[in-house]
Amino acid sequence: MNEIGGTPLFFLEFGDIVVYFTPFTLTLFILALIFTVFVLVSRPERQIDIAFGGDAFYDKVISLSELRFRRFMSIACGLACMGAMVTGDVFDFTLFVSLVGICNVGIVAAVKSRHVQNAAYQYGLVALAGTVPLFSAAAMVAATTGTLSMLELAKNAVEIPLAARALLVLGVMGEGMAPFYAAKAEMFRAPGAPYVIMCSLSSLLIFLRVAEVILLL
Amino acid sequence: MIWDGAIWNEYSVGLAVAFTCALIGFAALTIERDDLHKLLLIDLVETASLAVIALVGTDLAEALILPGLVVGIAELLALSQIYLTKEGYQHNPVKRLNIEVMMISPAPVIISTILVVYGIILSGFTGGGIAGLGIVFFLMSRSFTGDFHVLEIASGVSWALWVASFFVFMFFPEWWYLALMGSAIGILLKVITKMSLVGAMWGEPE
Amino acid sequence: MIAQLLFAVFFGLLLLGIHRKVIARIQRRPGPPVWQEILHMLKFSFKTTWVPKTASAILFVGVVLVAIGIWTAALFVVLSGGSLLILFAIYMLHKIVEHGFGLSSGSPYGKFGGVRSVISAASEIPLFVSVAAIAIFTHSLLISDIIAYQALNGPLLFTIPLAAVAMYVVLLSKMPFGPFSIVESKELVSGYKTEHFGLWRAGLEVCNGLKTYVLLLTFILVFIGGLPIWLILIVMVLILVTLSFVCALSPMLSPYDSVTVQTLIAGIMVAYVALLGVMS
Amino acid sequence: MIIQKISRVLSNFDNILPVFAAACAVMSVITLLFLPFVYSEDQLYPKKIVAGSTLNPYDRGGPPFVQAEIVSQYPENSPSAGFVTAYLTPFSLFLSKQTLYMGTTIVAHPGGILDEILYNTRGLDTVVEPSILFVAFAIAAYIFRREEHR
Amino acid sequence: MKKQYALALALVAAGSGIAAMALNMVHTLPDWAYMGVLVIAFPLFVLGLGLYWMAREGEADIPFLGY
Question: What contacts D89, CB < 8 A, 6 or more positions away?
Answer without folding.
Answer: B122, B123, B124, B125, B126, B127, D109, D110, D111
